Threonine dehydratase
Amino acid sequence: MYWEIAVVYADKDRYTRMAVWEDISKHHTGDVPLVVGGDFNCIMAKEEKKGGKAFHFNPAANDMASFMMSNDLVDSGYIGPAFTWSNNKDIRSRIFSRLDRFLLSSSIIDSFQGLKVKHLTRLASDHCPILCSFLGDVKMVYSSWIKFEDVWASYPMAWQLVKQKWQVNDVGTEFVKL
């Protein structure tokens, strides 16, 4: 089975997020299942937020719902803590939200009965890591499309990390090594 994966860090700005949804939709070959995971920076329901201002279904949530519908994506659900982000303020001002998730083509959910998404314990970040695991026979296929964010180049440690990883003597093309 072939499928595509998109990892997102969606901007807080609604219009920038919409551009990400459009970009993923444009590059997705509709006949192949799609997995989209990461920080969506969007709350989809009142149960996904605790603290702060009351949740109201807003245009940004509607944009994401439209993106999901047009690409036949469903929220995978999860095991673990309900919220994936916290503002880390004192207890009276603390806000918790579910901003991180995995969206999957409905055909993947039907094919992989052993699919699990876990919200892991939040340690050093304001986000908790999320883990998506599949049980089943999965064939690895690599796409030639790579997205680079300019902001990554502004972190001095990023250059060192890339240099170290490119010097590793792995088997495969440079894309596979990356």
